[in-house]
């Protein structure tokens, strides 16, 4: 790294400057094309489409509001018809008459009693069903004995067609299946009445005995389809728009304009766009919840397209003006900005490559020149900062590393020395000699100034450590250590694994009242889905264990975790423990981060 603070300014080669200028001008041209021309062309192309979508959205919102109001009006009207079908339940005399006519008791009544029941159904019930709305064409009551009672408006006969097969009609069957609930029927003719050929839509209900649930009869209220025309007159629609109502069987109930069978099938299928021979329509629909009728408003695309012609002219004029202004700005700015900025770019690239002897040649006193001066100052201070910070960080890292390593000292010297005394008193001189040699080897290994050690050396150290622990615990502990032969030469921080082994013996095995097993397995493994293999170190014991949520991590384990993170960026350590079952520690180190000794 250079230590020159203000190096002399070198002369820039003219050919190099011209090449750079052409390159920058080409890039600026490309940038101009990408940022100005393409967006303008895109606006010209997309603006009509955007405006079309906007018109469609507004039209759809307006139609949805209209459709909601229309649906509410029809729903209200159907509710009125539905209320007429529950009228028999409101009069006890009517219900009693229907009960008598639906059983064999009718034949046991006296003629007078039969007359009174007939009067109730012929006069009392019609007085309840009387309705002043001209669009309600009357009601028909069909007791289960086959008799017919009609409540018509003034313009129709009150006589049913003789022998008409009521029980075979779709609306009759539908009411029976509804089992007391209301059933809505689409458009049909009043072919069951004399001199009445109007098309109506109806509401039917099966009248049942509230006590026994036995069917007593069918009641149906008819409404004139002219009512729908009257509702449509209060709706403002775009020119050519159509309103279509389909029943629950997708049959046409109403249309304000003629529609083809193909259009009806498209509407019934739920399509949002309907096509006919001359035009296409956008469909907004809603379903009446009580009757499952579908109300659809068809808005013609031709009405929307008519609004787009002026948008094309506006978009073209806007694009031409914007392109002209952009060209003027391009040629003005490129001459003023390109040259100084391309020089700054070259200076920054040389600095990025580590050449701290380069400076920008300042000319003038404008904002760009001030930026160039600041760039020179930045390069000078960056050079100083890199030098100072590099040394400081390196010193701090080494200090932290040494401090963490120095905290990891054997905690078992006292117990080991007591064990030596015991061996001496019992006359086990050979075992005492081996123990002393193991302790001296451990102390020599600990006092060495190497920061890294091969896995083979760490395993030897741990074997000696565990051998000394066996002097104390005898048959209470069994140690098993296995290692992949290819991993023995890998380098890891010295004394990285010993604190985990020590922790397992002191906190896991020593408090235990039975013989325990301590295992350490070291393998090089591949991870599914990952390109790089890992070094996996697994240390486990079957000691007393602990509850992870209630025990805080000790100093030794924290130091191991910190050293591991300082040494290997991608390494991880996890601890799993179960009370009375044991503890396992797993260390995973990417092999790409590990060196060999």
TrEMBL record:
List, for all copies, the residue spans of the domain called HAMP: 335-387
Domain of life, source organism: Bacteria
Keywords, A to Z, come to: Cell membrane, Kinase, Membrane, Phosphoprotein, Transferase, Transmembrane, Transmembrane helix
Could you tell me the membrane topology recorded for this protein? Multi-pass membrane protein
Keyword Nuclease tagged: no
Kindly list the places in or outside the cell where this protein is found, as annotated in its UniProt entry.
Cell membrane
Question: Which SMART domains does its entry note?
Answer: HAMP (SM00304)
Annotated protein name in UniProt: Histidine kinase
